[in-house]
Amino acid sequence: MNPSSTPQSQQVKAVLVTGAAKRLGREIALQFARQGWDVAVHYGRSAQEASKTVEEIRGLGVQAEAFQADLADEAATQDLFKAVSNAFPNLSCLVNSASIFEYDRANSNSPLSGKGLQAHMQVNLAAPILLAQLMFEYQKSKSNKSDVVPVVIQLLDQKLINLNPDYLSYTLSKAALLSSVELLAMDFAPHLRVVGLAPGISLPSGNQTNEGFTKAHQMTPLGKSSTPADIAKAAVFLAESNAITGTTLYVDGGQHLLPSTRDVMFKTN
To answer: Please, are residues 37 and 13 in contact by the beta-carbon 8 Å criterion?
Structure first.
């Protein structure tokens, strides 16, 4: 059968994962590939890692291509979506995984600065919303005959309902992105769903030691927080769940249920 005559519901779906060259974004991209999705791998500066991720995805029998873009640049962000949607016309899911995570705290030796706050807001908030808008316009322009409603998945953080003053700029940017999930879900229906996915501590961050990460990872009601595989599987679940929109799924072993005055990585030194 000619692929162009295949009903869209039977065609392979495609996903764009930002920050997919390494860490959590890479695991998400690979999990989508394992489930038969074609994958657009976005990266900023990690070209070598992106190439390895693409090679591994192709080894799973689906299509993959790497796309470079600086998400701090609005024009580059727009060009990214245009290039991806041209290469993958069956784009059905956008996972905004890329983010800046740099330490600041108002009452510390590393206080918030306007420049640092703006950098976090541009990459962690503006870029995901710009990409979501482009995804909406793209889906609205199509005659969606698929049995799956397209979706934007915004990667958030369990600390948004377990606040502490560490990583202030990062927290503010993710808190605003959390608010946007409900607002955009209302605005983009019925063409596009918008959901949040909030991991717990899943990988070592910053200068955290492996020993410190292991201790921090166990500080949950279940005795363990989320693994990259947990988050990746949840992302695919959300992508394929038509009735879920305008809400956030916390995948963290219950970490958000234990209030803390410091970020968990500072409790393990």
So the answer is: yes
- To 10 degrees, the CA torsion angle through 37, 177, 52, 201? -110
For the stretch 89-132, pLDDT in tens is: 999 999 999 999 999 999 999 999 999 999 999 999 999 999 99
pLDDT band at 226 (very low <50, low <70, confident <90, very high): confident
Q: What is the mean pLDDT of residues 231-243?
A: 97
CATH topology for 10-267 is Rossmann fold (3.40.50)
Domain boundaries, the chain: 10-267
Say if CB 16 and CB 40 are below 8 A apart. Answer: yes
Residue by residue, DSSP assigns 103-114 as ---TTSSS---H
Of the candidates 132, 129, 125, 17, the one whose C-alpha atom is nearest the C-alpha of residue 69 is 17
The CA-atom distances, in angstroms, between 242 and each of 152, 189, 217 are 12, 12, 32
- Is 141 in a helix, a strand, or coil? helix
Does the pLDDT value for residue 58 go beyond 70?
yes
3-state secondary structure of 122: helix
What is the pTM (predicted TM-score) of this model? 0.89
